[in-house]
Amino acid sequence: MLRIAKLFVILSSAVALTAGTCLAGGDWNDSAVDWKGYEEGLAAAKSEDKPVCLIFYTDWCPHCTKYSGVFHDEKVIEKSKKFVMIRLNKDKNTKLSGQYAPDGEYIPRTFFLTPDGKTNPAVKAPRDKYHYFYNPQAPGELLAAMDRALATE
Is residue 101 exposed (0-12), middle (13-18) or buried (19+ Cβ within 10 Å)? Predict the structure, then answer.
């Protein structure tokens, strides 16, 4: 009986670890936000004449995990429909990450691009450093940036 109890504990731990791995990097609300890959997203932005919201994250970053929760906010979900949403793992897209690092390769980083794929210089986070780091715990900064990106498009 003791062996069965130990086996149960081991199996339960394995299941818990596996479940935790599934949400590594956060739960970005894939069911409500239409995330695209980089090339596919840039092509869609051009053909649909929509601005792009481009996010770099990693699976190991606690700020990224928190930031992913912002994409469960109803206002962010609704506003995301006016953008082509692209999310890239920095560790798996090192070359692209390096191309989008005007003030460093910190994470998460969120850029707003014009429909032709150019970075929109008018849209930055409201801080002196880390211009592409938005509050990972509340949607206000991101929503304001989305509004600016739509207004300057």
Answer: middle
Name every residue whose Cβ is closer than 8 Å to that of residue 32 and which is 6 or more positions away in sequence.
71, 72, 77
Q: In CATH, what class is 26-151? A: alpha beta
C-beta separation of 112 from 149 below 8 A: yes
Q: What is the pTM of this model?
A: 0.84
Query: With contact defined as beta carbons under 8 Å apart, do 70 and 138 qualify?
Result: yes
Contact 78, 34 (CB under 8 A): no
Neighbouring residues of 130: CB distance < 8 A, sequence distance ≥ 6: 103, 104, 106
Work out whether strand 109-113 and strand 84-89 pair parallel, antiparallel, or are unpaired. unpaired
Contact indicator for 30, 68 with CB cutoff of 8 Å: no
Give the residue carrying structure tokens 């409201």: 126
Q: What is the pLDDT of residue 6?
A: 41
